[in-house]
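Notebook, student rotation project (T.W.).
Task set for the rotation: take a protein with a known small-molecule partner, predict the structure of the complex, and write up what can be learned from the model alone. Partner molecule chosen: fe (ii) ion. Sequence and SMILES entered below by T.W., checked by me.
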Amino acid sequence: MTLEEYCRGILEDGTLAAKLTPPPERLPDVAGRKPISIDQPVRAAGLELASGAGRLPPVRKLGDPEAAAVCLARFAHHELMAVELFAWAILRWPEAPDVLKRGWLHTLADEQRHFRLYEQRLWALGSSFEAHPCSDYFWRHAGAIADSPHGPRAFLCAMGLTLEQANLDFSAHYAEAFRVVGDVESAEVCDVVHRDEIGHVGQAAIWLRQLAPESSQLDAYNRAVPAPFSAARAKGRKFLEAPRLEAGLLPDFIQFVREARPESGSLSSS
Ligand SMILES: [Fe+2]
Ligand SMILES: [Fe+2]
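Predicted structure of the complex:
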């Protein structure tokens, strides 16, 4: 199997089994392959994308297994979309540096593991992933990333430095919230996701520097981030500086994100 065949399998086979099969150790990339831009992933029955998503229950209700399951299913779906989008990026930019594509594949495998961790919590609470709707939230904006003149930099800024940066706040917030209601197992899953996300954001920062060496981190981000992604979407309600510094984000970029306010037309919350 080649890298392209593996990534196509994730997007073109609708089953969870295909999307969650870890990448084999040897997965050769074929020189000269053509870019492929996929609008939406194939989804099997029960996993179909639907527009929009309801509000998440308030965190004080997380002690109620049904409310917890709604949150865990939403987070699991974010992981599944991340799996698909890393495969999508590898297909979209065959000319990206080999080490970057390997890095994306490594992150994809982390996202598969995160999905499984959330799914196990759903089962433990008497629910299942398939019992909840799948919002097309990230996928609505794949076209904007695909069409950006900034190529892989646009993906690094949208995925790593916006959505994953925001998840530094969300994962820590939910880890604490699950602990407050005594659901230590769900809190520990959020802890794992939080730790790994620091690495994912860090990789995006390193690669943005590699691909835009003449610009500061903040300028490179502002230039390449594709609308409707923006700094205002790169954070949760409770802004954490420490994981951002650990990920290698620079103080002026962190400050910019902290102060960013949503503009009209910017990405709404999922
Ligand atoms: Fe993840
Ligand atoms: Fe991630």
